[in-house]
Amino acid sequence: MLSFNVDKRGIGILKIGKEDKSKKGLSPNLFVELGNLIGEIEGGDYIKAVIITGEKDEGFIPDIDLEEFLKFSSEDDGRLFSLRAQDVLNRIERCRVPFIAAINGLCTGVGFEVALACSYRMASDNPRVAFGFPAVNLGLIPFAGGTQRLPRLIGISRALDVFLTGRVIDTAEALRLGLVDEVVPEEILLSIALERALMVSGGRRSKSKRFGFTRRLLEKNSLVRKILFSRAKRNLVDKKHLRSLAPLMILESVEVGMSASFSRGLHVESVYFGELVVSDISRQLLRFFLSVDDIRREFAEQSGHIKPVKKIVVVGSNPLGSQFAIVAAEAGICVRLYDTDYKKIGEGLRNCYRYFKGKLESGAITEFDMRRRLNLISYTCDHTGFRNADLVVETFFKDLGQREEILKGIERVAGKDTVLILVTFSTPLSIISSVLPSWQGRVVGVRPFLPISNTGIVELIHQENSPNSAIGTVVDFLRRTGILPVFVRDKEGFFATRVLLAYLFEAFELLGEGAMVEQVDEAMIEFGFPKGPFALIDEIGLEFLNKVGKGLYESLGERFKMPLFLEKMAMEKNLEWEGFYNGEGKVNKSVYNLIEEKIVNDRLLESDFKVKERLCLRMLSEAISCLEEGIIRNPRDGDVVAVLGLGFPVFLGGPFRYADSLGLGIILEKLEALSHRFGSRFAPSGLLKELALERKRFYDA
After folding, report:
1. Domain containing 35: what range?
2. What value, to the nearest 5°, has the Cα angle with vertex 373 and ends 371 and 379?
3. Quick one: 28 and 122 in the same domain?
4. What angle do CA 516, 517, 522 make, to 5 degrees?
5. Environment class of residue 131 by beta-carbon count within 10 Å: exposed (0-12), middle (13-18) or buried (19+)?
6. Is residue 399 domain-shared with residue 422, that is, in the same domain?
7. Residues 629, 686: contact at Cβ < 8 Å?
8. Domain containing 160 — which CATH number?
9. Cα-to-chain-centroid distance, residue 360
C-alpha cells in the first residue's frame, strides 16, 4: 500500500506499507504500483523532492512476503519480477526529482534496495534501525540492483562482507561506511528530512562519508579487482560443505557489474535470482523461515494481554543459569542471581562479565551498554528478592535431591503470583513439580538448547491444569529475550532429547561395529550437521547420556536400550575418560581399546552413505514416533526444534520436510530392512505405515 501526499512547498512524502496488516510482507505488485506513482511524480512539475519513510509500526519498508516467492513456478517468473523491480528503482535513481530516504526502522531486503536508489539517506537514532541483505540466508541474492549499488557506494570488499554474511549493520557502522549521510534524533527525523529535501532539490548537499580515496583508487584497478574477486571465490570454494549457490552468484553478479557495466551486472543479478528462487534449497529455506515466523506470531498473540515481566530470579549460577541471566539483562529485565554460596555466584557473575566483555571487544555494544546490562544483574545467597519477582527460573537440573530442597525453601518466600520455570532435559515436569503443592498452576517447564543466546529456542512444557496467565508470563519473558518457544507434551524426553539420543545411540552402535570416530563425524558434517555426533557427545558428556538414556529405556523400552559400547564405558570404573577428541582436536585412539579386538582387526566399515542413512533414519523414525504420540503438535514444530535446537540441516527443512522429499514409502522400506537386521530400534511407527500406505505426506506442499 502506497500513501503519497505533497505539501505546499512541493515536497512529497511517500509511505510504503502492508495493505493487509495480517500479511507477512508486501505484495510483489508493489513495484507495479510504485512504477505508476513515479510516472505521476515525473509528470508533476510542482513536485520538487520526495521523502520515502515508513509507517510508525512497520519500520522503514516491510520486505516482500516470502510466501509470494513460493508461488513462482519457473525461473522466468523470478527473473521478470527482478527486472521489474530493477526498472522501478532505476527510475527512482534517475528521476528528475531527488528521493530522500528517511529511515525510521529496520531497513533490510527491499527497504535497503529502495534506500540505495535514493539520492540522500538519513536514519533516526532509534536502536531498531538496522541495515542488511539477509537474502543469502534464504538461498537468494538481492533482486532490485543491490548487488550493483552497494559496492559502488561503500567499496567491493565491504559490500561483499555485507552480502555474504547476511549480517545486520547498526546506524553507527552505517554512518561510518557511508551507507547513510547522517543520523538524527528520532523525534526530528521527518522535519530534518524536509530540510534536506529542499536542500537537495536546490542542487546542494552536504558531503557524505564514502569509502576512502585509497580504497576507491585500488578497487578501480582491474588487476586489484581480479585479485580481490579471486580470493573471495577461493574462500567460498574452500568451504567444503557450501550448499547454496547464492554466495557464488552474488560474487559473480558484483564482479560482472564492476568489471563490465552496471546494466550487465543487473542482467546477471536477475538471471541468478530467477534460478535461485525456484531451487530446492531456497524453497526449503523459505518454508523454514516462514515456519519460524508462524510460531513467533502465535506466541506474540498469546502474550499480548499479560503483565510484562520486569524482574526475575535465576536459581543456580551454573553456566546455564548465567545464560538465562545474560539474555534477561540483554532484554532490559532486572535479574537476581541466587546460589547456595558466594564462590558459585562469583563464577556465574564472571560468566556474565566475559560474555558482555566479548561483545564489547567485537564492537557489538559500547562500554556504556555493557555497564548498563551488567548493572541489571544482582546476586544473593539468601531469599531476598524472591517475593517481588515475576518469574523464578530454576536451573538445578542435575541433582533432583538438591533441587527439591532448594525449591521448597523458595516456595515459602516467593510471591503468590510468581511463576516458576523449571529447566528439564528429560524428566517430566509432572514428576518434578509433584513435590511443590503450593506452586500448582504456576509451574512451566523449559527444555533449553545451549548456548541459549545462540540457539534462541526452547521446548515449552506445561501441565494440563496450567492457567493461561502462567504460560503467558513465561511466553512474554521468552518473547522479550528473543527466544522462540515451541510447545511439547509433558512426557519423558519430550521431542528434542528423544530424537537426539536416538541419533547419538546409533552413532555408538556404529562405533561398536567397527566404524571410525572421524569417519562417522565427517560423514554427518558432510550431510549438513554443524558437527559430528562424537564431537557433540564430548560437549554433552557421557554422564548426561547415561542418566537420560536410562530414563528413556525405562519409559520407552528397546528403542533406547543402552548401546553395548556405552555400557562398557560406564562399567569401566578406572576409566580416565578424556573425550573422543583430545585438546588438539585429534581422535583419542584409546577409544578403540574398549572395542573387541576381533572387530578392530576385521573392521568392515560401512560406506559414508550407509553411515548417514542409518543415523538419519534413526532420527526420522523417532521424530515420527513423537508426532504419533502427540509430543509435538505438528510436523512444523518438530522441524523448527530439530533445525534450531539440534542442528539438523536447515537446507533440508527439518526431519519431516526431509522425509517428504525422500518419500515415506521409501523410508518405510528402509526402516523395515534395518529392523530385520538390527532389531526393534528401527521398527517403523504405525503413523508412518498409515501415511505410506495412503501415499500421503507430512506437508501438503
Report:
1. 2-278
2. 100
3. yes
4. 100
5. buried
6. yes
7. no
8. 3.90.226.10
9. 22
pLDDT at position 212: 55
Q: Considering its fold, how many domains does the chain have in total?
A: 3
Kindly report the CATH number assigned to the domain that includes residue 639.
1.10.1040.50
Gap between the Cα atoms of 463 and 55, Å rounded: 41
Strand partners, 158: none
Q: How distant, in Å, are the alpha carbons of 8, 34, 407, 491 from that of 436?
A: 69, 61, 8, 19
Same domain as 100, residue 59: yes
Q: Using alpha carbons, select from 387, 615, 392 the residue that is nearest to residue 501.
A: 615
Residue type, 682: F
Same-domain pairing of 236 and 120: yes
Cβ-contact 552, 425 below 8 angstroms: no
Catalogue the E-assigned strands of 607-654.
Answer: none
End of a domain among 258, 278, 298?
278
Q: Does residue 304 contact residue 384 with C-beta atoms inside 8 Å?
A: no
In a domain, residue 295? The reply is no
Q: pLDDT tens across 644-683, in order?
A: 999 999 999 999 999 999 999 999 999 999 999 998 899 9
Cell of 691: 501415511
Q: Are 379 and 232 contained in the same domain? A: no
Do the Cβ atoms of 123 and 183 come closer than 8 Å? yes
473, three cell numbers: 508470563
pLDDT at 186: 86
Neighbours of 489 (CB within 10 A): 16
Same domain, 184 and 36: yes
Task: Determine the residue type at 3.
Answer: S
* 515 contact partners, CB below 8 Å, separation of at least 6: 605, 606, 611
Determine contact, residues 131/158, Cβ cutoff 8 Å.
no
Q: Determine, yes or no, domain membership for 294.
A: no
Which of 437, 458, 488 is the last residue before a domain boundary?
A: 488
- Give me Rg for the CA atoms of the chain: 28
- Predicted local confidence at residue 596, as pLDDT: 63
Q: What confidence score (pLDDT) does residue 205 get?
A: 56
- Whether 232 maps to a domain, the answer reads yes
Q: Which three cell numbers stand for residue 132?
A: 542488511
Contact, 475 vs 537, CB < 8 A? no
Distance, CA of 538 to CA of 533 (rounded, Å): 9
3 state DSSP class of 425 = coil
Distances (CA, A) of 512 to 499, 501, 508, 531: 20, 16, 6, 20
Flag whether 523 is in a domain. yes
Sign of CA dihedral 340, 346, 349, 354: negative
> Peptide bond preceding 451: is omega within 30 degrees of 0, i.e. cis?
yes
The grid coordinates of residue 581 equal: 577428541
Nearest-angstrom CA–CA distance, 534 and 50: 59
Q: What is the pLDDT of residue 601?
A: 47
User: Which residues, including other chains, have CB under 8 Å from residue 472's CB and lie 6 or more apart?
Assistant: 302, 303, 305, 306
The separation between the first and the last C-alpha atoms of the chain, rounded to the nearest angstrom, is: 29
Rounded to two decimals, what is the model's pTM?
Answer: 0.88
Residues 218 and 321 in one domain: no
CA angle 306–309–315, rounded 5-degree value: 130
Residue 525 to residue 295: CA distance in whole angstroms = 28
| Residues whose CB falls within 8 Å of the CB of residue 673, separated by 6 or more in sequence, listed in order | none
Residues 443 and 515 in one domain: no
DSSP structural state of residue 579: -
Distance CA(241)–CA(252), nearest Å, equals 19
Q: What is the pLDDT of residue 42?
A: 84
303's enclosing H/E stretch is helix 280-303
* Residues in the chain where the model's pLDDT stays below 70: 20-22, 57-58, 204-221, 237-242, 301-306, 397-400, 465-467, 570-576, 594, 596-606
- Cα separation of 430 and 436, whole Å? 10
Distance (Å, whole) CA 535 – CA 248:
30
Q: How far is CA 344 from CA 543, 616, 632, in A?
A: 21, 40, 36
